[in-house]
């Protein structure tokens, strides 16, 4: 008997204390961990200890619930596949309203195969990378007699090679990001999109009336999607030869280089962040970054070039009969492009991958006696941008060059994108100096952007998600102009940084004794809810024979001369 108890104790002790974390992601107000434990000594482990549930079951612990909570807590799950986003269900728990924390067990077994298919389509490896599940966590509060549905949005990375066999735990410090007023309704709403007839979600009773109200989120519309969508990472603009400063007359070539390297000495993760935009009463959209849309997990002593891509764009006026070209380092996968001429040019290097822009709608339904539907209606909505890069045979992210040889005509997705961002006020110009030269070359790099925009190295640049709308030739809602995709990176150890080397360089070679007038770049005005600055590099070197005494901004509406 003594031996039996001793072995059982050792089994439990080993299980509790020997578990090790194989993946960790730390969001703004939540933490996700994958923990693996040794198998318990049998049969004593099963007799004396009930181990935690392993993936595809996931435990979500929601803490810091509001003191004025009057509703249940629900979680709505939505996830990307090769054929759009799918609904993974709504989970709810009916705990005492006095409790400030609840735990929910969610099941992702129906997402394992779709996730594998998506990873394969991207030519990535499920052993160390994977997409994320979007989760809307909602409850209902009573604020001075008015009911509000309050929602926090988080993500759950699904890296199958690490999740399988692991205990996956999500700890959320509940922080309402989206607030929607709810009402009792008496007839079925006629709003578009058509509301459901019934829903399950966060619910509360309206006493003394025998009416129950429930709210939840649903993905209601895919606005745009493509498996080969461009996210421009570096753009250079050259003005025409017949408008001051007559830049196209003075340029030999534009050299653009993108070099992204990640390396670390501890377990880490990096990937592409998604963004979520929600309307507000002020009219200015609220933008949240719930977390990564797609992640890679790397072990210690990791070093990898994710992208090394060069483009050379030539001016047909000064260097005739020379096509532009783009290629990966070493000259691999070379692609020829047109040269630019008297109309100037708008040039870009983009990362290509699978992208979705989605619409999510929040609904409320009322029920007499909790069972007879009184109707449902939409009470809020949001837009989401999701992106994951394709990979090429050399293991790098898929990239490509593009040139618009007549940007003023706004005939391509790139010129339409740039002009829209400029006219909407979503970007502002940052002049790095008033005048440079005379010189025959000028370079703008990410070092300039870091120092002047205050960008963190955790998010080195922002890329406009709405490029896909212009690529597909479809109209996207105005709020989507603020949706940004960017790269994140973090170490699992707060003591060991995750290093990223971003080298985004645009070099303009000109005729001798040329000036560069107010050279600079464009940057997003919206700082993503103060989460981090998000610079977007649209370079304007502005070469000219001489400079005016005031700044010039040449990216402007068609036919404008001001």
Can you walk through the features of this model?
The protein is mainly β and 562 residues long. The chain has helices at residues 2-18, 44-48, 112-121, 160-163, 413-424, 446-453, 467-472, and strands at 20-26, 30-36, 57-63, 73-81, 84-93, 102-107, 129-143, 146-157, 167-173, 178-181, 202-206, 211-238, 251-264, 268-273, 275-278, 286-288, 292-298, 302-314, 324-328, 332-337, 345-368, 372-389, 399-404, 427-431, 435-445, 462-464, 484-491, 499-517, 520-524, 538-540, 543-544. Strands 11, 12, 15, 16, 21, 22, 23, 24, 29 and 30 form a ten-stranded mixed beta sheet that branches. Strands 4, 5, 7, 8, 10, 14, 17, 26 and 27 form a nine-stranded antiparallel beta sheet that branches. Residues 1-14, 187-193, 455-459, 493-499, 527-532 and 556-562 have low confidence and may be disordered.
**Global Rg:** 27 Å
Oligomer: single chain
Major sheet characteristics: 10 strands, mixed
Low-confidence stretches: 1-14, 187-193, 455-459, 493-499, 527-532, 556-562
Shape, principal axes of CA atoms: globular
**Helix content estimate:** 10-25%
Tell me how many strands there are. Answer: 31
Tally of helical runs: 7
Q: What is the beta-strand fraction? A: over 45%
The mean pLDDT is 81
Structural class, by secondary structure, is mainly beta
Cα separation of the termini? 92 Å
């Amino acid at each position: 008997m003594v031996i039996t108890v001793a072995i059982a104790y050792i089994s439990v002790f080993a299980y509790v204390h020997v578990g090790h974390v194989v993946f960790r992601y730390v969001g703004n107000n939540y933490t996700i961990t994958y923990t693996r434990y040794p198998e318990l000594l049998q049969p004593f482990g099963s007799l004396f200890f009930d181990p935690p549930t392993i993936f595809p079951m996931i435990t979500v612990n929601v803490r810091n619930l509001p003191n004025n909570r009057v509703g249940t807590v629900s979680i709505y799950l939505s996830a990307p596949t090769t054929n759009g986003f799918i609904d993974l269900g709504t989970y709810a728990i009916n705990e005492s309203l006095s409790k400030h924390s609840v735990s929910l067990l969610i099941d992702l077994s129906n997402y394992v195969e779709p996730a594998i298919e998506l990873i394969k389509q991207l030519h990535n490896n499920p052993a160390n990378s994977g997409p994320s599940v979007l989760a809307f966590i909602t409850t209902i509060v009573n604020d001075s007699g008015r009911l509000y549905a309050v929602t926090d949005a988080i993500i759950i990375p699904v890296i199958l090679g690490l999740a399988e066999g692991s205990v996956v735990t999500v700890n959320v410090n509940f922080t309402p990001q989206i607030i929607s007023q709810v009402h009792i309704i008496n007839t079925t709403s006629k709003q578009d999109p058509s509301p459901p007839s019934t829903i399950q979600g966060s619910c509360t009773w309206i006493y003394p009336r025998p009416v129950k109200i429930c709210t939840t989120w649903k993905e209601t519309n895919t606005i745009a999607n493509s498996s080969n969508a461009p996210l421009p990472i570096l753009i250079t603009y050259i003005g025409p030869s017949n408008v001051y400063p007559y830049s196209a007359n003075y340029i030999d070539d534009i050299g653009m280089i993108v070099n992204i390297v990640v390396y670390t000495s501890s377990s880490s993760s990096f990937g592409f962040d998604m963004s979520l935009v929600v309307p507000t009463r002020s009219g200015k959209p609220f933008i949240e970054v719930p977390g990564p849309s797609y992640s890679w997990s790397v072990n210690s002593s990791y070093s990898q070039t994710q992208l090394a891509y060069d483009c050379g764009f030539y001016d047909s006026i000064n260097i005739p009969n020379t096509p532009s070209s783009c290629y990966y380092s070493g000259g691999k996968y070379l692609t020829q492009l047109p040269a630019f001429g008297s109309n100037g040019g708008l040039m870009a290097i983009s990362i290509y991958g699978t992208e979705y822009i989605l619409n999510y709608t929040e609904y409320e339904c009322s029920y007499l006696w909790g069972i007879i539907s009184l109707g449902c209606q939409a009470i809020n909505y949001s837009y989401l941008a999701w992106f994951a890069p394709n990979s090429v045979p050399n293991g790098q992210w898929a990239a490509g060059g593009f040139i618009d040889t007549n940007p003023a005509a706004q005939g391509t997705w790139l010129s339409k994108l740039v002009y829209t961002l400029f006219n909407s006020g979503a970007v502002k110009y940052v002049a790095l100096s008033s005048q440079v030269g005379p010189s025959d070359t000028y370079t703008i790099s990410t070092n300039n952007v870091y120092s002047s925009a205050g960008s963190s190295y955790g998010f080195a640049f922002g890329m406009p998600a709405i490029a896909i709308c212009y690529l597909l030739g479809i109209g996207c809602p105005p709020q989507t102009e603020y949706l940004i995709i960017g790269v994140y990176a973090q170490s699992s150890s707060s003591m060991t940084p995750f290093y990223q080397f971003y080298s985004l360089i645009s070099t303009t070679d000109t005729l001798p004794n040329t000036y560069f007038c107010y050279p600079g770049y464009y940057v997003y005005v919206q700082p993503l809810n103060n989460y981090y600055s998000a610079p977007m590099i649209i370079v304007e070197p502005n070469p000219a024979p001489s400079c005016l005494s005031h700044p010039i901004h040449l990216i402007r509406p068609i036919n404008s001369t001001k």
